[in-house]
Amino acid sequence: APAARTLTASTARNIGIIPRVSAAVRIWNKFPIVKFVRFQYNLVKMTTAMKVATEYLWFDTAKRKELVNITEDVRQVVRDSGVTEGMCLVSAMHITSAIWVNDEEEGLKSDMLEWAEALAPAGKDYKHHRTGEDNADAHLKRSLLHHQCVVPVTKGDLDLGPWEQVFYAEFDGCRRKRVVVKVLGA
């Protein structure tokens, strides 16, 4: 690994580095005063061009509302990309589905679906239904969970927390939909 170097805040700003800050603080009249700030950064020598890989995951859920754990599918896209350090974007490409990062635990998944249903109940007389559609609740549920996530890629793998999993959340299923997985890095 490249050695860490110490530099001043103005130098870091001038060369476009976002530093990690550590500060030694002393207490003077009960107010914290920054005595000194040390910035550290790691230089990574880029010997190859940035890699970009795009793949699509297709879904045709059996139920109208369903959570599908796609962690291993996303992980395989990252491995196939050859990217060892970078980012992985996972984005639902339909306006009634979402991407959710959380624990693979049945109670939590049930709680999330119940919570979303309480906030955006199906069968309500939404203004969107005046267009002939019947899925306004699905649009709102997507907004609650969000349409995408970005996961760091470290050492060629998803850098998820110990319990984190990536889910495709479907709220208006029973038809073919897709998720784009885009991996960028070196």
Describe the fold and architecture.
The protein is an alpha+beta fold and 186 residues long. Helices cover 22% and strands 42% of the residues. It has helices at 9-14, 71-81, 106-119, 136-145, and strands spanning 4-7, 20-28, 31-42, 51-59, 66-69, 85-92, 97-103, 148-154, 157-158, 164-170, 177-185. A 5-stranded antiparallel sheet has the order 4-11-6-8-9, with helices on one face. Strands 1-3-2 form a 3-stranded antiparallel sheet. Strand 8 and strand 9 form a beta hairpin. Mean pLDDT is 84; it is low at 16-43.
Which runs of at least 5 residues are low in confidence (pLDDT < 50)? 16-43
Strand order of the largest sheet: 4-11-6-8-9
Overall 3D geometry? elongated
- Binned, the helix content reads 10-25%
Rg: 22 Å
Q: Encode the helix/strand succession as letters.
A: EHEEEEHEEHHEEEE
Sheet having the most strands: 5 strands, antiparallel
Q: Number of helix segments?
A: 4
Distance from first to last alpha carbon: 15 Å
Q: Using DSSP, what is the number of strands?
A: 11
